[in-house]
Amino acid sequence: MPISVLLSERKYSFLCLASILLISFAFLLLTYTSYPFFFAFPLPSDIHVSVSSPPPPSRSSSLQFPTEPELETQPADHLDLNVSLNIRWRACRLGSVTVDYIPCLDNSKAIKQLKSKKHLEHRERHCPKPPPRCLVPLPKGYKVPVQWPQSRDMIWYSNVPHPKLVEYKKEQNWVRKSDDYFVFPGGGTQFKNGVTAYIDFIAETVPAIKWGEHIRVVLDVGCGVASFGGYLLDRDVVTMSFAPKDEHEAQIQFALERGIPATLSVIGSKKLTFPDDAYDLIHCARCRVHWEEDGGKPLLELNRILRPGGFFVWSATPVYRNDERDLESECAMLFWYSVYITAMVALTQSICWKVVAKRNNFDSTEIGLVIYQKPSSYSCYAHDRTKRPPLCDRKTKKEVSWYKPLRRCTSRLPVDSNGNLLGWPSPWPHRLRNKPQSLPAEPDAEAIFNEDTKHWAALVSDVYFDALAINWASIRNVMDMNAGYGGFAAALNELPLWVMNVVPIDAQDTLSIIFERGLIGIYHDWCESLSTYPRTYDLLHSSFLFKNRKERCNIIDVAVEMDRILRPGGYLLLQDTMETIQKLNPVLRSLQWSTSLYEGQFLVGKKGFWRPKY
């Protein structure tokens, strides 16, 4: 019936009913404006909303995945932490690598398509796109890790069940299996008399190497099971140990399980993810890197990340002396060494490295080494430039070392805003709190740095230690996912733990400042997987990490990566906006994490032992 007829016949009962319907519809429309999730974007087939008890409709505002439209943030006292995205999680199924799966290093499809492996391209990062959304299973019999400091000397065999290294290095005292444990005696290829004696030997050889005072930040190339870095901790030295995956089975995983700082990396075709002039000392004990290859690019990369005035300790001594086979190995190694050292002499001279000590008589210590020092001025570079690699373009000094190719050029020395060469940092521990020389030139830069240091000291003391449900006694391996100036790590300095400071590639580049403070860190893009083993960290710290990454990174993928690298029983400590917390908490709950909220901005998540069966 036409509306005009209804009006002419005064069908008031119809008009009343129609008005009520229109008003009701308008009311519903306005009510749901704040919750567009249910109107605009259907959920994928493997995700649906669930709650432990039926919540009021307003709770659904936190469940905007994966499209993540704008939403109205709910007050903290209205947030239901029981809201969960009931994602049908599946276990990763990748054969023998499953329990140790590293997406960007185990991408077999991409590796097979490489045109060359000459420069170890197959050991570099090749991240799958999109990132996998499977969960890495636990090794059979996985246990809560042995706590530090006992973990330096022994770990559970079931947590890193890789016995090949025991057999491969049985004569060199790296690691032994004893009942349910792996035991680390403190030996190594170069540590025939123990790593402590080796560390003392280096300091005695060059007295300027004052461990824990002049030398604070060390890089150990091809680190084995990282006993060198583990024992340097006793000297107040923090060592970044690194090696490629699978060069020796699970060596970096052994290091991390022991509670020793380490990362997976390789000197191949790309720059290492460290800033220029980062390390006080770089150590290489028979690390089998061909420094002279490709025009000397590998050694030029070490020169880039070595601080001016810093040391390169290179030891390569034959240690096999027992039978004919060992003597043959020794002779072969000596022949290789004589050829190789000739190339090294020419290369180190071309970049003005000075030999400050050499022991090649293989005395009772059974150690032979050369210690070089990088120049701290341009005086040497000015002579006979035709025999030297060219100085790198000034632009490269400002670039973040992320997927950047190695270059055959000599890194420029660091300067301040007035062009003056930077000096050596203050002795440790003063360098932790003194003004870094590499601070920006802005007038208020020092004030901002000092305020940042005070802020983190107060926040850690008043909130992180006293107000949050975190058992700090169980924490050893820590990662700050958005490190800034490293203030969080500085505030934890007195605790028996270490912090991997991550500077995101799209954030202000502060990594040089972090190293100058005597801390360690890496660059990373949180839209990709980290180059580390599963179950690496006891605590992940995130301070407003997601603020500028909503458009680039899917929060579900970041949560999956956090779940991969966090140990069962480990914590996520997140400070962020309520909008971010509303989005992240349901994902963590779907992973069977427990969560708690403090003052509307601090979310604490604790990972359990749950893993999907299929």
Automatic annotation (TrEMBL):
The family annotation for this protein states: Belongs to the methyltransferase superfamily.
Q: Which GO terms describe its cellular component?
A: endosome; membrane; trans-Golgi network
Q: Which InterPro entries match?
A: Put_SAM_MeTrfase (IPR004159), SAM-dependent_MTases_sf (IPR029063)
Keyword presence, Aminoacyl-tRNA synthetase: no
Which Pfam families does this chain map to? Methyltransf_29
Task: Please verify whether the record's keywords include Glycosyltransferase.
Answer: no
Bilayer topology reads: Single-pass membrane protein; Single-pass type II membrane protein
Reading the lineage from the top rank, the first entry is: Eukaryota
Q: Which UniProt keywords apply?
A: Glycoprotein, Membrane, Methyltransferase, Signal-anchor, Transferase, Transmembrane, Transmembrane helix
- Per UniProt, the enzyme's principal EC class comes to transferase
Q: What is the protein name given in its UniProt record?
A: Methyltransferase
